Amino acid sequence: MIRDLVLANRSYRRFQQSHVIDMATLRELTELATLCPSSGNLQPLRYVLSCDADKNAKIFRHLAWAGYLKDWPGPTQGERPSAYVIVLGDSQACHSINCDHGIAAQTILLGAVEKGLGGCIVGSIQREGLRKALDIPERYQILLVVALGKPAEKIVLEPVTSESEIKYYRDDSGVHHVPKRSVDQVILGS
Ligand SMILES: Cc1cc2nc3c(=O)[nH]c(=O)nc-3n(C[C@H](O)[C@H](O)[C@H](O)COP(=O)(O)O)c2cc1C
């Protein structure tokens, strides 16, 4: 069921780092992204894949995690992602990329969840540092990073009871809570 897949597709930030995700799996997930809608069908997205420890480490140090969790600097060694898909925009294919990258990132994540994996879209990226670290040519805009792994955290959705309560939080037992607006709260005029 699509609802079950979307429900299971939470933003996971803690993983069993020792769980191997191989290049064939990353290619399979990226192939899903090539089937997605694209504005003007320009298909400007390009991808850099990583599942080896050295490259993963180079990527990880340029990412910021869970801005609302002020006391948590991000996943520690042992709970970091096993793989990454870096989503790039080719400036020679398209000047301004609409929302293709969001659709692609979500599709990659849904494919990962179907395989018992999970991940997180990361938009908070030290882009110039990452560009240098991986030698990504200027022609490619760094749009998003999709972090992937075997999730090692429990995430629970909560209702939003007031406008001030959209910030996710972690409780004393380490469970991550994510407030979500209900369908009645988001459909106007109902
Ligand atoms: C475009 C986009 C960028 C995001 N960037 C980050 C990020 O830089 N770091 C992070 O930890 N999470 C990031 N997230 C994950 C959101 O924080 C997450 O979707 C939100 O907290 C709701 O949780 P959920 O995905 O489990 O519903 C991003 C999500 C999206 C869609």
Helix and strand sequence:
HHEHEHEHEEEEH
Chain-averaged pLDDT: 96
Q: Using the CA coordinates, give the radius of gyration.
A: 17 Å
| Quaternary structure type | single chain
Helix/strand-derived category reads alpha+beta
| Count of helical regions | 6
What count of domains describes the coordinates? Answer: 2
CATH architectural label of the largest domain:
3-Layer(aba) Sandwich
Task: State the CATH superfamily name of the largest domain.
Answer: NADH Oxidase
Beta-strand segment tally: 7
Features:
putative fmn-dependent nitroreductase like fold, 190 residues, NADH Oxidase, 4-stranded antiparallel sheet, 2 domains, 6 helices
Molecular structure report:
- This protein is globular.
- Helix 2 (23-34) crosses helix 4.
- Helix content is 28%, strand content 22%.
- The mean pLDDT is 96.
- The chain is built from 6 helices and 7 strands, in the order ααβαβαβαββββα.
- The chain has helices spanning 2-8, 23-34, 53-60, 100-114, 127-134, 183-186; strands spanning 45-50, 83-90, 118-122, 140-149, 155-159, 169-170, 176-180.
- The chain has a 4-stranded antiparallel beta sheet. Strands 5-7-6 form a 3-stranded mixed beta sheet, with no helix packed on it.
- The protein folds into 2 domains: 2-153, NADH Oxidase; 154-190, putative fmn-dependent nitroreductase like domains (putative fmn-dependent nitroreductase like fold), CATH 2.20.180.
- The protein is α+β, with helices and mostly antiparallel strands and 190 residues long.
- The structure holds flavin mononucleotide.
- Flavin mononucleotide (FMN) is lined by residues 10-11, 13, 64-66, 120-124, 155, 168, 178.
